[in-house]
Specification:
alpha+beta; 3-stranded antiparallel sheet; elongated
């Protein structure tokens, strides 16, 4: 009897683990930015509910996100990044949010001293 219960518990754990993993997605988003200050801001903005990992590369200007697609969408992540002042490939930051960026982070000027 104990073996049967153990087997049922193991099957239940394996099933729920595989179902949870099926909602995990990894995508790459192009995001405008200049420096390490931008990196921190972009990654922080991308960490909304459902996002497990966010990593922006300033050389390639690409944000890699790992997220649970049952809790958030790529569009919501891009909207959050744009709200922080950084254009994405699909969502443009408002002029007001862009102007709030520090001078070195205003990527349209392509001038950054660090």
């Amino acid at each position: 009897m104990k073996q049967l219960i153990s087997i049922i518990v193991l099957i239940f754990i394996a099933t729920t683990t595989s179902l949870a993993q099926s909602h995990i997605k990894k995508d790459t988003i192009e995001v405008d930015g200049n420096c390490d200050m931008c990196k921190k801001r972009i990654e922080n903005a991308a960490y909304i509910k459902g996002v497990k990992r966010a990593d922006w590369d300033k050389k390639d200007k690409k944000l890699v996100v790992v997220y649970n697609d049952s809790k958030t969408t790529l569009e919501k992540i891009e909207q959050s990044v744009a709200k922080a002042g950084h254009n994405t490939v699909h969502v443009e930051a408002t002029e007001a949010s862009y102007k709030k960026l520090p001078n070195c982070c205003q990527y349209k000027t392509e001038v950054c001293e660090h």
